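hey can u run this one w/ protoporphyrin IX containing FE bound, need the structure tokens asap thx
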Amino acid sequence: MTTTNRVAGAARAMFVAIAAMVMLAVAQPGGAALAQTANPDVQSEAQGSIDDSQMWQAIRKGATGNVSIPDRNAATLIQSEGDNWRAIRNGPLSVYSAYALFGMIFLLALFFVLRGRIKIDHGKAGYTVPRFSGIERFAHWLMAGSFVVLALSGLNMLFGRYVLMPVIGKEAFAAITMWGKYLHNYLAFAFMAGVALAFVLWVVHNIPNRHDLVWLMKGGGLFTKGSHPPSKKFNAGQKLVFWSVTLLTISVSLSGIALMFPFETHFMAKTFAFLNNFGFDLPTNLAPIQEQQLNQVWHAIVGVAFIVIILAHIYIGSVGMEGAFDAMGSGEVDANWAREHHNLWVEEMEKSGQLKSARQPAE
Ligand code: HEM
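ok here u go:
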């Protein structure tokens, strides 16, 4: 007998033993499954015995027995929610995620065709003003660089086998996916660090103020040439990006950590218990594997929503607007760009004398 056969034989024997234990436990009077399947017409305390079909039906519906080994999950022989989870993941979750991603790409392309690149209305001043310091750009590129890898490796996990595998073959796909998964797990921490640093540096500039309402009502002037609603360092659109990044990072990180350390957390049960205070009626007694499945679905939904928002951000910070990229590239922006898009910030800087370092145009 080869080693492989011996291992397979041992695994089979173990499965049969656990199955027998669970079936015995399920068949015990007073057992969880029995409680579900007992004949309601029998009025006495005596439960009687259940027949095979009732017992298997209970097991098929996820009845839990008793096991004496440390792995409590082994007490559930058939976890039906797994079927539902897989159907959701490979069905509506993937389909609607694809709609959302392509929808955003389509909208951005349409915006580009209709509006074109947003130009500096007064042309370039020819000299620059400092916009972001080295540490601010470091925080930005730490979160942006890691986010891009997280997004691509995450999308590969959701869609890769349908999109990439047929093109590059199984072996290359397996290698890419394995390395992508390692990157996904480790870069998650770089991303969290980047967001935490950006939060500390920028939160003070992202407190809503009265100008934000005007900015939002005018659509930020994005749809009208020459319209530039007043704004401080960050306009209302950027504040929405900032707070979305902050909240989505918290949510995607917690669900991601739950996936990294399976069966250790109860985030979903706790969230459901909290939501039940507001009139919901969500299950709070979740099996450990259900926690994992819900975490996976939530992680994917938040991740895709995050990517959709960031696609719009990347567009406006690069091809969509003349002069914007320099803010995060060199850290210096053209003075006319600054006056058009962030006039109140420029005024503040001038008043406090912080614009003295601006380079003047060459004579
Ligand atoms: C990868 C391509 C990216 C480009 C080209 C880019 C570009 C920019 C630029 C030019 C700014 C400064 C805007 C200004 O001066 O007013 C900025 C700001 C910012 N970026 Fe990015 N970014 C990218 C990715 C990301 C990612 C992945 C995140 C977060 C997940 C992010 C989060 C932010 C935040 C929170 C701000 C400040 C608020 C705002 O301006 O919207 N960026 N980005």
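The pocket of protoporphyrin IX containing FE is lined by residues 131, 140, 143-144, 147-148, 198, 234, 238, 241-242, 245, 310, 313-314, 317-318, 324-325, 327-328 (CB under 6 Å). anyway lmk if its weird
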